[in-house]
Amino acid sequence: MSSIATSPPAARAPSRLPLQLVGGWEAGLLLFMVLLYGAGVYINPAFFGSTDAFSAVLRDTARFGVMAVAMTFVIVNKELDLSVGSVLGLVATVFSILYAPSHVDAGVGWAVFGAVVTGVLAGLVNGLLVTRLKVPAFIATLTMLFIGRGLVLGLTGGKTIAYERKAADDPWFFSLGETNALGFNSQILIFLAVAALGAVVLAKTRTGYQTYAVGGNEQAATYAGIPARWVRLRAYLFTALAATLAGLMNVAQDKGITSQYGQGAELIVIAAVIVGGASIAGGRGRVLGACMGAALVVLIDKVLREGVPITRTIDVGGIKMEVQAMAQLPGGAVQAFLGIILLAAVLIEPWAIKGGGAARVWARLRGHEAPPAPDRGEAAIVGAQTKGARSDARAMGARGLRAFLARRDAAAIILVVALWLVGMALRPDFWGSLDNSFNLLLAFTEIALVSVGLTFVIANGDIDLSVGSVLAFAGATAAFLMKELGVDPWLAAAIAFAAGTACGLVNGVLTIRYGLPAFVATLGMFYIARGLGAWLVAGRQLSGFPESFNLLGRNLFELLAYFGLEPSGGLGLAVAKAVSTQTLLLGVVALVAAVALGRTVIGQMVYAVGGNERAARYAGIRTDAVRLWSLVFSAMCASAAGIIYVAYLRSFNPSAGTLRELDGIASVIIGGGSIFGGFGTIVGSLAGAAAITLIRSLLSLQIIMPDGSSFVLPQHWMNVFIGLILIGAVVGDIWIRQENILGRLFSSRSASGRHA
């Protein structure tokens, strides 16, 4: 019997890079960026035709790119980190305070050490909140955003800290932000090194495999022996370290900081990772794509901001002269385009690929019958979102004070009363006056209106990040129509309200029709609406509106006087001067919303969808319609707040509504709403909005001391207080109501007492 020896075929070298590192998505991004850069060269060859432009794009990409590398790990993990911008600002602030001669005046080594410790602690807190305390990643990192931003404002006092002269003594560190001997900024080298390391770790190491496994199916990964909790916590440490490095790169370049450092960076970084091909649903993403997404965002900004060189003819004393100028897009165009690109990138998977949209379009173009849309089986993949708790069961049979204390919104109501009493104790001569009450109600109205709409969205288990931008867009529309086009004030208000409502309709369609997570759809609208608003007013502040329109923001006395019906004295005069028109409008909206949510079938459907969408669908509820109209109603409330904002201030500023989405979300959660859905009341949300308003008023209150001196509480720290209250409300909801930690503790004690 003979044997034939066979040799294995010789291994052939791969013809392309491994797909774990690069794929077709990155090739498409590269082609798009080449075309975009070519457009920049065409419209402005003096800038984009030079190597300086390419170097400037990479330099500005470096800091966002470093954070995008780490954010890829978090998003692949099926989570999110909204705190990276605040961590960047906080790290830069700690470094500056330690290093600046005007403050601690420590050495650069100690300053770097303090910055790194600060960043690691921030990441550790984020990770522990998410993994140990079971706080949703969105809320945990949103809280860190609040606290970090508050610490930056508090530590800097809202001022700039500079140390350019001392920086000359430590060139080894500050050269990191300068041009090196090779002719480009050293930050580019740092970015490339971090990108290469991150790409290899995510694609070719156990750390990366574990990240993909946990993001794809955490339960299966746990059964396979992967420490899922550690994998998730580790990702937050990565983002914190990346934000720390980006903050140090910032101070190395600027040799100082402002109190606005890092503001808005988190949304740019998240947009970069999503545009780079990562799935918000987890389990997919590459570092190279995220880095290219960051470069694309910066390139869009450069191309749109640089403008087109033109020649203008001006008349000087009857003599016509030609001068060189730059034609630029109005302010806000960059944000609007960024939002559109973000949504387009995210829609490619659910619509063009999984939904078969591209195939259907191609078939229609060729005159063929379009293939049927695939069945996504949406109901089968939706699980229960709301957990029951013994405290909820006890509330059903409670009476009197116990029934009130068992309410989810009781803590917020008690907090409001306590804050009011603190104000009365500190300044009884001022706090209880009608003038102060009027001012408090004015400040309260804007947040309250936004929170009323968000109550429906959050009770549905969704989120709306666009309300602040919709507020600004509606206000800008009304201001533009009245000031620039001379439109009748009430018609302008109606058009502005319709424009803002349309934003909510787009949010709903993207979420329901195309299956985008509400977070992603409203994040895109966050950019688009704010960009369109700034575009309308060309980035300017507008004022000088008709007085009949401004009455929306005045007190009731001025409104009645306009029609010749003002009271002459007594209680009627006092009330008319203390109550504003917008407060009455808020009262009507809140009353209708409270009845609809708490006493009608509409409200029961909202709670059902938020509690368990699959069960609600089986019960015959049109869950898609409920979620869509909740997002539309949220936009309607934000639009009304924007119109009132313009009338109250008698002007419009493009920064209107900044961070109002965070205030609104915090109000609903503080007021007893659950980020998981299924809970929430209008009374609770109003109480949460009142608590935030009172905290801000207390922190700006001038306190009179017994010796006649006075001082004002440190109002720069208000976001820290709001963040702490928010995380306390969420942790209490999870551990006291859902996990029933107090009930289990008392049960274990009573059981041990019986055994003893």
Number of helices: 35
Approximate shape: globular
CATH topology description of the largest domain: ABC transporter involved in vitamin B12 uptake, BtuC
Low-confidence stretches: 1-17, 375-391
Q: Helicity level, as a percent range? A: 55-70%
Strands, total number = 8
* Total individual domains: 2
Task: Output the strand order for the largest sheet.
Answer: 1-2
β-sheet strand percentage:
under 5%
| Helix vs. strand class | mainly alpha
Major sheet details: 2 strands, antiparallel
- CATH class of the largest domain reads Mainly Alpha
Mean pLDDT: 82
- What is the end-to-end distance? 82 Å
What is the CATH architecture assignment of the largest domain? Answer: Orthogonal Bundle
Structure explained in plain terms:
It is found in: Cell membrane. Keywords: Cell membrane, Membrane, Transmembrane, Transmembrane helix. This is ABC transporter permease. It comes from Alsobacter ponti. The protein starts with 23 loop residues before the first helix and ends with a helix. It is mainly alpha-helical. The chain folds into two domains: 24-309 and 327-360, ABC transporter involved in vitamin B12 uptake, BtuC (Orthogonal Bundle); 390-745, ABC transporter involved in vitamin B12 uptake, BtuC, CATH 1.10.3470. The protein is built from 35 helices and eight strands. Helix content is 68%, strand content 4%. The strands form four sheets. It has a two-stranded antiparallel ribbon. It has a two-stranded antiparallel ribbon with strand order 3-4. A hairpin with a 2-residue loop joins strand 3 and strand 4. The longest helix has 27 residues, at 228-254.
